[in-house]
Every structure is written in C-alpha cells, then in structure tokens.
Design goal:
Length: about 325
C-alpha cells in the first residue's frame, strides 16, 4: 500500500473535451464556430489586401489596422481549427508541450492585440490633439519600433509561463473541459501548489491589459476634451466619427474579456459550459466584428471595398 501511495503519475498527454455538458450538441455548436471562422479569415484578409494594395491608405491609422487584422487572423487560427476537430471528430488529444505551446501563443497574441489597441488610441490622440504634427510624430520609424515593442511585450511577459508549467507534475487529471488550452485551466491539474502561477498571471494581467485599459481611457478623455473645444460643429462630428469605430472595437475586445474574467473568478454557481462559451466568444468576436466595424464606419475602406467588388462585376 505504501508503494502504491508513493507512485505519482505525471500526465504528458491531455484531452480537450470541448464544451462540457453540451457534447451531444457539438455538431450544431460547430456551425456558428465555422461560419465565424470563415468570416474572420475573409473579412480580415480583405482588409489587409485593401490596405496593402492601396498606397493612399499607407498611413499610421491604416497600418495599425492592418496589423490588427493580422493578429485577429492568428488568434482565430490558434483556437477555432482545434475546436472544430473536437466538435466534428471528437479528436481533442494534445501533448503537454503542444498544450503549453498553444496557450503561449494564445495568451501572447491576446496581449499583443491589447497593445495594438493602445497604440491605435495613441494614434487617434495625436491625430486629433496635434493634427499639424501627426506625420512628424508618427513617422515610419516610430510605427515600426512601436509595433516591434508591442509584439516583444506579448512574447516576453508570457514566456515565463512555459517554465512555470513545465516544472509542474500533472497527476490529478488529463481531461481538460475546454476547446483550447489556457494557463490556469491546465495548471489547476498539477499536484503541487500553483500559487506562483496564479500570482504571475495576475501580475501579467495588471502590467498589460489593465494598464492598457487605463491608458486608453486616459487617451480618450483627452481626445474628447479636445473634440468638444473644436469650434466647428462639422469638424467636431468628423473627429467623433473617426474615433467611433475604434471605440466599438475596444469595447468588443475588453468587455467580453472582463466579463469572462469575473465569471471565472466569482461565478462559481454558473454552469461550466457558460464559462467555456464566453471564453470562446472572447476569441471569436473581435476577429469577426473588427473588419465589419471598420468596413462600415470608415469611409475610405468602405469606398475601396465597393470599388473592388462592384468594379470587377462590371
């Protein structure tokens, strides 16, 4: 009996179960996932194609929007294909290292997208508060350096999670009730204490997403202050319109994420499938809606799409 108790099994292979409690409905659930995935790929692909192909759109705002589209495509490719294989083929098997790799790329990409939204808020701040210095402040060199810094921040802050997870022994279970791997969702099946993982996760959240939200809100407070001091009503309306699409995208990215975080931490009575569905909404909504929002609210992109679609039909 003593020998049996001293034997510890460390799982190196895991099974993603999809959405717990709704296994019988996986085929039906896969339909909106698949449609959303196709819309995200086509919408962001078209957005990137239009911006890269039109030299008149090679301005900071559109360059950052192009980067955002690329990040959205990456986020979709990291989560949806695996979810669809679970829904369609019940093939949720994934190795420990595969799981760690997936969660690293998902979490780092999420941080990168938050950083891009912050940079876009700064872009609007400069455009509205310092319009005459816009091109001298946001030079091509500044755009490149800022973009590299955003990607490096995402990779550097999430990289330690690899070692924090690799040090753990997973003996509790190897069945993960989710459609993709995520940090605490995997760590909680470890035998040892995961206090370091929890505190580091909170630390990363504070210095990235929470800090970004504070800076974005501060930027828009200054932007709105500047807008309402513009004497011309037409100029004021135009300035508000240029910020409207960005505010919609920011809300779409952060609000579901904040709601999901609160549900995971405090919604113990909420069924598990609601947690998983909300987590997937966080991953699917921005890639699907971002190109639609910018396509509808940004005149230059709307005109290019109309020209591209209807000119070819003629």
């Amino acid at each position: 009996m003593a020998i049996a108790n001293s034997t510890v099994i460390s799982h190196t292979f895991f099974y993603l179960l999809g959405i717990p409690g709704l296994e019988d409905h996986h085929i039906w659930i896969s339909i909106p996932f698949f449609i959303s995935y196709i819309i995200a790929l086509l919408g962001n692909g078209l957005l990137i194609f239009i911006i890269l192909g039109d030299r008149s759109l090679h301005e900071p705002m559109y360059i950052f929007l192009c980067i955002l589209g690329g990040v959205d495509v990456s986020l979709s490719n990291m989560t949806v294909p695996k979810a669809l294989t679970i829904f369609w083929f019940n093939s949720g098997g994934i190795s420990l290292y595969g799981c760690i790799a997936q969660l690293f790329f998902i979490h780092s990409t999420f941080v990168v997208e938050s950083g891009i939204l912050l940079v876009m808020a700064f872009d609007r701040y400069v455009a509205i508060c310092y319009p005459l210095r816009y091109t001298t402040i946001l030079t091509p060199s500044v755009i490149v350096k800022t973009s590299v810094a955003v990607f490096l921040r995402g990779a550097v802050t999430i990289f330690p999670l690899i070692f924090l997870l690799k040090r753990l022994t997973f003996c509790k279970n190897n069945l993960l009730p989710h459609t993709y791997c995520e940090h605490i969702g995997l760590a909680k099946y470890a035998c040892a204490s995961i206090r370091v993982n929890i505190w580091y996760g909170i630390f990363v959240l504070l210095i990235t997403v929470v800090l970004d939200i504070i800076l974005i809100v501060t930027s828009y407070c200054m932007i709105l202050h500047a807008i309402f001091h513009i004497p011309s009503q037409d100029a004021r309306r135009k300035a508000l319109n240029t910020c409207g699409s960005h505010i919609c995208v920011i809300s779409l990215f952060y609000i579901p994420g904040i709601f999901t975080f609160l549900v995971q931490r405090f919604g113990k009575q909420i069924p598990a499938h609601v947690h998983i569905l909300m987590a997937n909404v966080c991953m699917l909504a921005p890639p699907v809606m971002n190109p639609i929002i910018y396509g509808i609210k940004t005149k230059q992109i709307r005109d290019r799409v109309s020209h591209l679609l209807f000119q070819r039909q003629r």
